[in-house]
Amino acid sequence: MSVERFPIGQEMDVTYPNFKVSLTLLSVTQLRFEIKEGSFARTETVDIQVVPLSNSIFAVSWQEKDGATVTNVQDYDRGLIHSFATLPSGQFIRMTGPFAITRPPDRVFDDRPQRNKALVIEAMISLFQRRDASAVERLYATDYIQHNPNIPQGRDALQALVAELSKDVYYEPGLIVAEGDFVAIHGRIRGWADAPQVVVDLFWIQDGKLAEHWDVLQNEVPVTATLGGVSMFDP
Predict the structure, then answer these.
(1) What b/e string do you get for 194-232 counting C-beta neighbours within 10 Å, with b at 16 or more?
(2) Using one digit for the tens of pLDDT, what is the confidence trace for 11-47?
(3) 115 three-class SS
(4) Residue 34 in contact with residue 114, Cβ under 8 Å?
């Protein structure tokens, strides 16, 4: 959860049971509201506090010039705002209304890289540390494409390979980078060949599953034997 996901710059119209309000999310510290009709009609810019409750739900609170206090729970998954207001008179109001976005945020947060990196880490640890063949069906696409020339094609072949892995096989994840739907991970695997190997695996993720895989492997050379004097892999 991060306040960085708060949709700064977004404008939206909220329809409550008794009135409508337009909200402009100016920043993580300011909001402007406009009520055009009714007893609450006015426009005001207020200082706000934003607390993320999940990746797409935020509690937004403020105090207005007349002393009224308001807390919005803005739920972007369901398209609803739950509002709790205490008026200067002491009257407490609860309201829930749907909202329509009239201007998109200045920056759309793309959390695919984080989600995809977590998926790849889970897959590599499940298959090549725990040797859990059942994880293949859960994490890999049904039409999974394998580019390693020494592994048969498809998800079923991968599942069979994992089921037959030696207990000596152990994978260590290292640096991982992601952009969009692609993830590359640098690691070391022992027990796959006669010597430990350093490997770069590249995955394409589609619909939350590992859909395609490429890899490059190289036998690890001890740091004392390298010309540059640095290790090939640092976990």
Answers:
(1) eebbbbebebbbeeebbbbbebeeeebeeeeeeeeeeeb
(2) 999 999 999 999 999 999 999 999 988 888 999 999 9
(3) helix
(4) no
Question: Is residue 8 within 8 Å of residue 105, measured between CB atoms?
Answer: yes
126 and 132 in contact (C-beta within 8 Å)? yes
Count of structural domains within the chain: 2
Q: Retrieve residue 1's tokens.
A: 């959860």
Confidence of residue 163 (pLDDT cuts 50, 70, 90): very high
Helix (H, G, I), strand (E, B) or coil at 43: strand
Comparing C-alpha atoms, which of 72, 65, 53 is closest to residue 10? Answer: 72
Q: Could you tell me if residue 221 is inside a domain? A: yes
* CB contact burial 73-84 (16+ within 10 A = b; e otherwise): bbbbeeeebbbb
* Residue 142 predicted with pLDDT over 80: yes
Confidence bin at 54 (pLDDT 50/70/90): confident
Whether 233 is in a domain gets the answer no
How far apart CA 20 and CA 40 sit, in angstroms, is: 10
What range does the domain containing 12 cover?
3-103
Q: Are residues 77 and 119 in the same domain?
A: no
The string of pLDDT tens digits covering residues 55-106 is 789 999 999 999 999 999 999 888 999 999 999 999 999 999 999 999 999 8
Token pair of 52 as six digits: 């993320």
Residue finishing a domain among 56, 78, 103: 103
Q: Which residue carries 């494409």 as its tokens?
A: 145
